[in-house]
Design brief:
The protein is 40% helix and 20% strand. The protein is an alpha/beta fold. A 7-stranded mixed β-sheet has the order 14-15-16-13-12-17-18, sandwiched between helices. Strands 9-8-7-10-11-19 form a 6-stranded mixed β-sheet, sandwiched between helices. The longest helix has 22 residues. The structure holds nicotinamide-adenine-dinucleotide and manganese (II) ion.
């Protein structure tokens, strides 16, 4: 029998979960939704309800807008950039003090491995806030010499946009909240952030820390609720001047259409079907674990997942054997078990969706070397799956599965890499790509040809607050992280002063 090491739930988390329904964080206070409606947050490792949460709709969004506008024109405006930076830094410190609690909530609510939540999600979220705390004092305009006369002073200012709406998915609830809040707050905006209905808990816990850090009421409003109600209310509200969205391409398109009615600024971080290319001269001691982590990390529920694996014909059989042997031995179990190597999918809906892709893969003639059938146990478990015999046109090679499923395909060009690049780029997505080779010239040549916002060479799924992130083609537009994100949350004003 294999060992199980289930983490003891922290007393703070136990208390947090015992006080339901959880309230929305609006105007600096925790309040019930206007309608009194609630939704249940489920633990995907068991399928059982953890706690219920008030579900926001239009009336709550209106209240949040009211509070946010008041803060934007009042207390938040009076705060200096340095003080803004210190508040954001303070929030990061409080998150660090609550690292274990945040990690446990991520694991319980989303099925994430506790070991990953502790080592990746929460530390990256903290680091993200610290990075943008530094930018608060570095938002700059220019003075420009115009050609309109000697005594004309012309300068630009980078001003905040105002009330910003942010809609995030369930795959990295806390980290996505950090990505959205960091740059927006550093540049002086006020925010209404809607977490995903599947994973509302870490954002609400963060609300307590926002309160404790001392942000003026209304600067950060954290709500949850369904896309059709709370999400659309954000998109349709004309007083929300910008919406930043991360999630599916289908919803991204709908948001653009609806935002056209009020011309709010839109930035989108959408899905992917990222190619990961292993050349025969790769360092396989890195490429094999890299390809595995590229697809199985977070159960494959990663927008950059390396779901299309192109492997050179010469090494294809060996690579398949290695992947299969590793994947078939991965220990799958609850998120809160420290010995689990892969957890459950986030919801029964996501489980059904991935299950139907497994069926389609088999129907269209691909062969699963390992996995391929959902596990017969409670919770939403799909085993790590490696499909071979995949054709470029099969559904599993074209559509985002968002599960632990590799579609592996051989390629066979020798010196010429044009064909595999053409195949890698033959998708409407363009979020990320991976390249494994020890030839430095080939590495850069291929990296430049790939149509993707991020290319990883001899690594995969590496992220840092300082490095811009976003999509080509239908994977979205706008860049979060790095200095690029400042552009998303500021607008430029030109000021002309005639000194004559
Ligand atoms: P989704 O796009 O429906 O949900 C993401 C967020 O958008 C949630 O907060 C949701 O409440 C909100 N939302 C939904 N409909 C909305 C609307 N009409 N207006 C405004 N907001 C709305 O994603 P999902 O259904 O949870 O997952 C479906 C698929 O999306 C997944 O299988 C995966 O392929 C993809 N996905 C991608 C990412 C990513 O990071 N790129 C994240 C989650 C899901
Ligand atoms: Mn949940």
């Amino acid at each position: 029998m294999s060992s199980v090491q289930t983490v003891d739930v922290s007393p703070k988390v136990a208390k947090f979960l015992s006080e339901g329904p959880k309230k929305l964080f609006i105007g600096g206070e925790f309040i019930e939704s206007a309608s009194g409606e609630t939704l249940d947050s489920v633990n995907p490792s068991t399928g059982e309800v953890l706690v219920s949460v008030y579900a926001a709709d239009k009336e709550d969004v209106d209240r949040a807008v009211e509070a946010a506008e008041k803060a934007f024109l009042g207390d938040w405006k009076k705060i200096t950039p340095s003080e803004r930076g210190r508040l954001i830094w303070k929030l990061a410190d409080l998150m660090e003090e609550n690292l274990e609690e945040l990690a446990q909530l991520e694991s319980l609510d989303g099925g994430k491995l506790i070991s990953h939540a502790r080592a990746v999600d929460v530390p990256l979220a903290i680091d993200h806030f610290r990075y943008y705390a530094g930018w608060a004092t570095k938002v700059m305009g220019q003075t420009i010499q115009s050609s309109t006369g000697q005594n004309m002073l012309t300068y630009t200012r980078r001003e905040p946009i105002g009330v910003v709406g942010q809609i995030i998915p369930w795959n990295f609830p806390l980290l996505m909240a950090a990505w959205k809040l960091g740059a927006a707050l550093a540049t002086g905006n006020v925010v209404i952030l809607k977490s995903a209905e599947q994973t509302p808990l870490s954002a609400l816990y963060l609300g307590q820390l926002v309160q404790e850090a001392g942000f003026p009421p209304g600067v950060v409003n954290l709500i949850t609720g369904y896309g059709k109600t709370a999400g659309e209310a954000i998109v349709q509200n004309p007083r929300i001047r910008k919406v930043a969205f991360t999630g599916s391409t289908a919803v991204g398109k709908r948001i653009m259409q609806q935002a056209s009615g009020n011309l709010k600024r839109v930035s989108l971080e959408l899905g992917g079907k990222s190619p990961n290319i292993i050349f025969p001269d790769a360092d396989f001691s890195k490429a094999i674990p890299g390809a595995l982590m590229g697809i199985f990390f977070n159960q494959g529920q990663v927008c950059t997942a390396g779901s299309r694996l192109f492997v050179h014909k010469k090494v294809y059989d060996n690579v398949m054997a290695d992947l299969t042997s590793y994947a078939s031995n991965m220990k799958q179990g609850p998120g809160m078990d420290e010995t689990s190597e892969i957890g459950p999918l986030v919801s029964s809906q996501q489980f059904e969706r991935v299950k139907s892709y497994l069926q389609k893969g088999h129907e269209e003639g691909a062969k699963s070397l390992t996995g391929g059938q959902p596990l017969d146990r409670s919770g939403f478990f799909i085993p790590p799956t490696v499909f071979s015999g995949v054709d470029d046109n099969m559904t599993i090679a074209r559509e985002e599965i968002f599960g632990p499923v590799i579609a592996a395909m051989p390629f066979d060009d020798e010196e010429q890499v044009a064909d595999v690049i053409r195949r890698a780029n033959d998708t409407e997505y363009g979020l990320a790509a991976g390249v494994w080779t020890t030839d430095v010239r080939k590495a850069h040549r291929v990296a430049h040809e790939l149509e993707a916002g991020t290319v990883w060479v001899n690594c995969y799924n590496v992220l840092d607050a300082s490095i811009p992130f976003g999509g080509y083609k239908q994977s979205g537009y706008g860049r979060e992280m790095g200095s690029e994100a400042l552009d998303l949350y500021t607008q430029v004003k030109a000021v002309w002063v005639d000194l004559n």
